[in-house]
Amino acid sequence: MGTTITNQNSVQEEIKGRLKSGNACFHSVQNLCFPVCNTKNLKIKVYRTVSLLVDLYGCKTWSLTLREEHTPRVVENRVLRRVFGPERDEATVELRKLHNEELNYLFSSPSIVRVIKSRRMRWAEHVARVGERRGVYRVLIGRSEGKRPFGRRRSRWSGNIKMDLQEVE
């Protein structure tokens, strides 16, 4: 299980593949366990221990744009809707899907994007401590050679770390 990055510094295909694998793991466990166990706490533990670990493998090196941050949120909300199920609306007495804010309140854990950012910051701290002699540090600080293509510059991993630090403050 490695991490694939394109020559354009895009990890979108990597994220899609990880989320697809995590979703497959969750479905396989769901078909085995969920008919037997009806408690939501157990379903959330299964999601955290099986699906989330597969989804977040290698996320320390991802350089995410806002569009790429949207995809893991959608997948997480879909799984949480499956876990918590629909809610009965008191006014119309009909079942309705839970809104994202309600899911975040019921889940009461950091969202998948927040977890990605915290893991990325921990990795940045580790790389900073490694020192200049190691290849990882040189890759982080180094500049690429050659001409840059036209258009807006692609966001880099170090730029994402700076934005994460500003969010924390």
Could you walk me through the main structural features you see in this protein, from its secondary elements to its overall organization?
It is a single chain. By secondary structure, the chain is mostly helical. It has a two-stranded antiparallel ribbon. It starts with 11 loop residues before the first helix and ends with a helix. Helices cover 61% and strands 2% of the residues. It has one domain (12-144, 153-168).
- Termini gap: 34 Å
Largest β-sheet summary: 2 strands, antiparallel
The succession of helices and strands, N to C, reads HHHEEHHHH
Overall morphology:
elongated
Strand ordering within the main sheet:
1-2
Q: Regarding quaternary structure, how should these chains be classified?
A: single chain
Task: Give a count of the beta strands, DSSP E runs of length 2 or more.
Answer: 2
Strand content: under 5%
pLDDT < 50 stretches: none
Compute the number of helices.
7
Global mean pLDDT: 80
How is the secondary structure organized here?
Blueprint: H1 12-33, H2 40-55, H3 66-84, E1 87-88, E2 95-96, H4 100-107, H5 112-130, H6 135-141, H7 157-168
Helix pairs in contact: 1-2, 1-3, 2-3, 3-4, 5-7
Offer a few descriptive terms.
elongated, 2 strands, mainly alpha, two-stranded antiparallel ribbon, 169 residues
Q: What's a quick, concise take on this entry?
A:
It contains 7 helices and 2 strands; from the N terminus they run H-H-H-E-E-H-H-H-H. It is mainly α.
